[in-house]
Amino acid sequence: MDNFSQILNQQWQKELFLCVGLDSDFQKIPEEFRKLPVAEGLFQFNRAIVDATAEYCAAYKPNSAFYEGYGLAGLEALIKTNAFIREKYPNHLIILDAKRADIGNTNLGYAKAAFDILQAHSITVHPYLGQEALAPFLEDRDHGVFVLCHTSNPGAGEFQELKINNQDLYKIVATRVDQEWNGNQNCGLVVGATYPEHLGEVRKLAPNLPFLIPGIGAQGGDLERTVINGLDRNGTGIIVNASRSIIYASSGLDFSTAAAREAKLLNESIRKIARENGFGRKVE
Amino acid sequence: MDNFSQILNQQWQKELFLCVGLDSDFQKIPEEFRKLPVAEGLFQFNRAIVDATAEYCAAYKPNSAFYEGYGLAGLEALIKTNAFIREKYPNHLIILDAKRADIGNTNLGYAKAAFDILQAHSITVHPYLGQEALAPFLEDRDHGVFVLCHTSNPGAGEFQELKINNQDLYKIVATRVDQEWNGNQNCGLVVGATYPEHLGEVRKLAPNLPFLIPGIGAQGGDLERTVINGLDRNGTGIIVNASRSIIYASSGLDFSTAAAREAKLLNESIRKIARENGFGRKVE
Predict the structure, then answer these.
(1) Which end of chain A has less Cβ packing within 10 Å, N or C?
(2) Average pLDDT of the residues in A81-103
(3) What is the mean pLDDT of chain A?
(4) Size of interface A-B (CB pairs under 8 A)
(5) What is the mean pLDDT of each run of 10 residues along chain B (284 residues)?
(6) Known catalytic residue at A99
């Protein structure tokens, strides 16, 4: 199965809401992997993390920057990681967190990289160039497009909270994506857990879009408010990402069991809040 | 010499304003190169284009998407192309058109890829996440940061022309970058030639920032209005990019002489307009 929405819906029906962020940095992975060449060390670390956490998560989100920083070796590690997930865990969604966006057909190169070479099911993109520029992504029915809406960083508001006729820019982005960009049912929004009030506002404006929610874990977002504010009317609709708090849960020999424990705990916490707030109402 | 502003200023003093966009697509390059493996074919095509045009341009701008679409081979071609330019044409500016932007330290991976691995002098970035997110780029004094301001695509206005207290978003971006982000004198703006009026507005708001101006050539921007509206008070300040109209000027055996002719013509046209509109007033 290869369709973005189908995979997501199946994972939600299994009460899997967690996304494990594969922000794997060669300098930070356990020593045993740092003895290997970069491509192999990064890949083997990722494989161990994926094997340990697959039972407890819906998706994996490698952030392209961490791999690009290692050049050819990094790209090789990323290609192998995604191929491994596709092969062994075909029901898990791969979100390439690449935050791309160029104009028109130039995006075909990025789409080819993300979906053909890296075999991701979906990608994150910047909204600044508008819908017309993103056509190569939006017209591809099978692959998901997570548009940056309100990001998790401290300075996110500089432009995202500018007011247009009394409405914040991020809200305009949310409404546009929900009502105009989503003709192929392949859009989602990136909304940070570090701004749970804003997350709730975005849910009101985009009742049916999947949300990719970074900012839980190391960035300190409040899980309960995040989940309650993010859930849609079916008690689903959210993919909550944690990266460092899972993949670096331990730097010792127990790194994979520690990652499994953190992932299990976090997905169970989300599941509990979701059950108390509408999950199962419509999904049977 | 390795400093972004120094290189730019030296090129302007030589009356070089043109940037050749290395949007090299393996499917579109002359047949002799398509007989080679992708990495080698793309690199050798680029090398021939660079050798043919270096005399007539200030800068090269490879667009990352075209290379990423070919995976490891594309990345290898891009690494080799930039290394070649650095070695043989050290006075030419390399602008990596990658349109990146992630949050905080994640950008370190992109900066490492752009400046260490790919050896670019500067990069294009999205403004949506704000100044705080872009610190890893902005704090790097030697490397340039071209912030997308008003892009050249037909749908650029969807968000960029939204009004905040009667002022378009792209103008707010221009003012912020000019007055707040440019503490290290390493910022520039991307302003499309397809909107020459807006280009003039941006010049008023950002009198001293270098402009990277795409949209001339295949996209059809008006050269004279673009140059007049883009020039700063010294009659410099602009890097006018053309990609397809130069690199694909001919698909035959004469592709490099055709590219040289187009590049020479275009830089001479810009030079003429610049001389008539202030160039040389302050620069001696």
Answers:
(1) C
(2) 98
(3) 96
(4) 172
(5) 89 98 97 97 98 98 98 98 98 98 96 98 98 98 97 98 97 98 97 97 97 87 94 96 96 96 97 92 51
(6) yes
CATH class of A4-217+255-275: alpha beta
- CA nearest to A111 within chain B: B69
Q: Which residues of B touch A67 (CB under 8 A)?
A: 109
Distance of CA A111 to the CA centre of its chain: 17
Collapsing DSSP states into helix, strand and coil, what is residue A252?
A: coil
CA atoms within 13 A on the CB side of B128: 27
| Alpha helices (H) along chain A | 4-13, 31-34, 38-53, 64-68, 71-88, 106-111, 135-138, 157-160, 169-176, 196-205, 223-230, 244-247, 255-275
Residues from chain B that touch A106, judged by Cβ atoms under 8 A, are 23, 63, 65-66
Structure-derived torsion over alpha carbons of residues A256, A262, A267, A272, reported in degrees to the nearest 10: 150
Task: Indicate whether A280 pLDDT > 50.
Answer: yes
Break chain A into its structural domains and give their ranges.
Answer: 4-217+255-275
Q: Is ipTM beyond 0.90?
A: yes
**Nearby residues of B17 by Cβ (< 8 Å), 6 or more positions away:** B11, B58, B227, B236, B238, B239, B240, B267, B270, B271, B274
Closest CB from B75, B133, B160 relative to A128: B160
Selecting from A155, A162, A176 the residue whose C-beta is nearest the C-beta of B133 gives: A155
Closest CA to B210 of B241, B182, B234, B239: B239
CB contact under 8 A, B65 and A108: yes
pLDDT at A123 over 90: yes
Taking only residues 109 to 128 of chain B, the set having a beta carbon closer than 8 angstroms to any beta carbon of chain A reads 109-110, 112-113, 117, 126-128
pLDDT tens readout for residues A136-149: 999 999 999 999 99
Question: pTM here?
Answer: 0.97
Q: Report CB contact under 8 Å: A113, B65.
A: yes
The class of domain B4-276 in CATH terms is: alpha beta
Tell whether the model's pLDDT for residue A251 goes beyond 50. Answer: yes
User: A163-164 and A211-213 as β-strands: parallel, antiparallel, unpaired?
Assistant: unpaired
Inter-CA distances, A276 with A196, A204, A228, A266, A270, Å: 18, 19, 9, 16, 10
